[in-house]
Structure prediction request, 305 residues.
Amino acid sequence: MKAVRIHSYGNADQLKVEEAPKPEIAKDEILVKIYDAGINPVDWKIRAGYLKTVMPKKFPLTMGQDIAGLAAEVGSDVNQFKPGDEIFGFATGAYAEYAAAKASELAHKPRSVNFASAAAIPTVGLTAWQIVIDTIQVSTGHSVLIHGAAGGVGSFAVQLAKWRGARVLATASPEDANYLKGLGVEQVINYKAERFEDKVKDADAVIDLVGGQTLQRSYQAVKPGGWLVTTVAPVDENEARKRGIRAMLLFMKRNGSELAQIAELVDQGILKPRVDQIFPLSEAKRAQELNESGQSHGKIVLQVA
Prediction:
């Protein structure tokens, strides 16, 4: 089968399309015939070696984790899926024609979207779910400020927070303002020209998907008892304690049952994935470079089949 692999850490030139053996599955796994694979920042961070101490890898390494496709073979212990089912979720080695995936990390594909849109959901959708629903537990009347709101995780966080009845404020670039207002964002703050902490003083929650100075300045925007959740860098425990707020660095955990709930909301029209560009598998290098540049507006997807 064709797969995009690397043989050592480095820049995007390490990505090679080559022949690789079709994976064999364990009893609790599914062999997925992949139609589309989503690109995530974690992909190029792994490729570059930024995560090698916390996520050590063996080479050659097939890249990627977000998939949508068909169940080609089903392990003997798997009951919730059958061959031919349309599925989406996580696999080790998504940039390939086939991958082995744990059944517990998959769900049935939303019926209302195509495979490319489904492949754009798993990492960003589940990250947003675990921030908004599991951690902050956003409810009616909450005010939520989201940094990086127009990105993959941010756009899902906006939609989930609105679904739960929150007032949503966002920092973004001017070119994304109309998109965010269309999702129901009440106020879009131009991060290039305005300081959000001058406009937001007592948010029930701040979701930081940017890091750096944005994270450091976010503590003052949260009211006592509120939440600051980031996906980017460790939090300042002393600053959080001093201000009487709860702060955490969240790492997404793969969860098929939560993916199924997200799929249901997609089919109800409550959640809409935002796909920016679709590249063939042969252009994985270009796709990762675009994701790494931060220039895309929405998810980048590799079309495998």
